[in-house]
Amino acid sequence: MIEIDLDVMLAIRKMTSLELAEKIGITPANLSILKTGKAKAIRFSTLEAICEALHCQPGDIIKYTEKE
């Protein structure tokens, strides 16, 4: 199972979801879908923009856990 820990990096960087959405050029609604784990896919360009804006690595926001 893939988990998105975007809230953690946003808190560390003291940035709101709205600020991130504006920086990377996506709608707050689409960012919310990603944050809640409801997204079925993410473009590498979007992932790259998130990592650039938050100064992090993909592994800082995306984690794999085994299903129980």
Query: Biggest sheet: strands side by side, in what order?
Result: 1-2
Mean pLDDT: 94
Strand content: 5-15%
CATH fold node name: 434 Repressor (Amino-terminal Domain)
What would you give as the CATH superfamily?
lambda repressor-like DNA-binding domains
Number of strands: 2
Helical proportion, percent range = 40-55%
State the order of secondary-structure elements, H for helix, E for strand. EHHHHE
**Poorly predicted runs of 5 or more residues:** none
Structure annotation, total helices: 4
User: What is the oligomer described by this structure?
Assistant: single chain
- Secondary structure class reads mainly alpha
CATH architecture: Orthogonal Bundle
- Using the alpha-carbon principal axes, give the shape: globular
What is the rounded Rg? 11 Å
Total domain modules: 1
User: Span between N and C termini?
Assistant: 10 Å
> Main beta sheet, described?
2 strands, antiparallel
CATH class: Mainly Alpha
What would you say this structure looks like, in words?
This protein has 68 residues and is mainly α. It has a single domain (2-64), classed as lambda repressor-like DNA-binding domains (434 Repressor (Amino-terminal Domain)), CATH 1.10.260.40. Helices cover 50% and strands 9% of the residues. It has four helices and two strands. Strands 1-2 form a two-stranded antiparallel sheet. The longest helix has 11 residues, at 44-54. The radius of gyration is 11 Å and the shape is globular. The termini are close together. The model has no long low-confidence stretch (mean pLDDT 94).
